[in-house]
Amino acid sequence: MRIAIVTESFLPSLNGVTTSVCRVVDSLAAQGHEVVIVAPSPAPTTYRGFEVVGVTSVPVRQFQVGLPTRQIEAVLRRFAPDVVHVASPFFLGARGLYAARALGIPTVAIYQTDMASYVARHGRGAGTPLAAVTWAYLRKVHALADLTLAPSTAALADLAREGIDRTALWGRGVDGRLFHGGWRDDAGCRALRRRLAPQQQILVGYVGRLAPEKEVERLAVLRTLPSVRVVVVGDGPSRADLEQAMPDVVFLGRREGDDLARAYAALDVFVHTGTSETFGQTIQEAGATGLPVVAPAAGGPLDLVEHGVTGLLFDPRDAGDLRSCVAQLSCAEDAWARRALMGEAGAARVADRTWDALTEALVDRYVAVSRPGSRVGLA
Hints:
Blueprint: E1 2-7, H1 16-30, E2 34-40, E3 46-47, E4 50-55, E5 57-60, E6 63-66, H2 71-79, E7 83-87, H3 92-103, E8 107-110, H4 115-121, H5 129-143, E9 147-150, H6 153-161, E10 167-169, H7 187-196, E11 202-207, E12 228-233, H8 239-245, E13 250-253, H9 257-266, E14 269-271, H10 281-289, E15 293-296, H11 301-304, E16 311-314, H12 319-328, H13 335-350, H14 355-370, H15 374-378
Parallel strand pairs: 1-2, 1-7, 2-4, 7-8, 8-9, 9-10, 11-12, 11-14, 12-13, 14-15, 15-16
Antiparallel strand pairs: 3-4, 5-6
């Protein structure tokens, strides 16, 4: 197939949307499909040998936000795709959906970011009209799509509640070739662990972007747990404030590739803090590494963490519950055994969630929307 991907985020920016797009394109290339990518500038001119078209963008909170432009129509006319894949549509993606509709090209939208919660959090709170206005805008955007794919049952429920139809479930893959427990035998990983835990502390860590919507400040309740050291991997606009508020927490900064895999493997327990996640990709990466996961009983983590089996779900309304869950995996007499069993179960659970398999399922969706009358059938 010929696939045009219009994405709100791409390299050199690193986040969940970028990672998903890159892994999908990797798999599409391996499967013999043709791709063009439209993304905010600055962007590389090619990726995996495919053309990347960078459009004018403006920086917003360390993100490059692509501006709607007629350039998208020109790209679609020239490339003549069988389907347009729109990643996390908001501004640039909305224009991509509009252009595809005007040209009669089938579309698949990927709902990935809870923009209503994000906008409200940076405004005056999720209960304000700001969230309602954002959802009203998203309804108009996704009405342009033939099919919207959401990564979790919680995200699907949110879309249904807000009147967005023609939806289906499509999760995310995990790179088991990069993230796996074998890194614990790596010399670099062992050296990192010796540095982080010189007194054999239990390392409890978070990996991800440091921004208000990630709620990383929740980790503060873990700092006084006996024999526990808290580690944060990542960067973002909240880093300086978090470092000031939690001076005894180790901040390793942004890591990529093998260095990121080593950082996961150096940990004993992984903690996910955000309550407005549509999925939780780092949960899968931690699971593939063999780590037990502690995450809020809200949003995407509900699909990814089996309470008492692959990790523990805490009540996000009770800060003490997060502390209690981590204590069970760090301070209890059977903590080591529980960590080992949960880590093994977590690795087994994500073993078949490869990006190649997820992309094959995605291509099936592309084919479905390309059939005559598919828009009615998907409703």
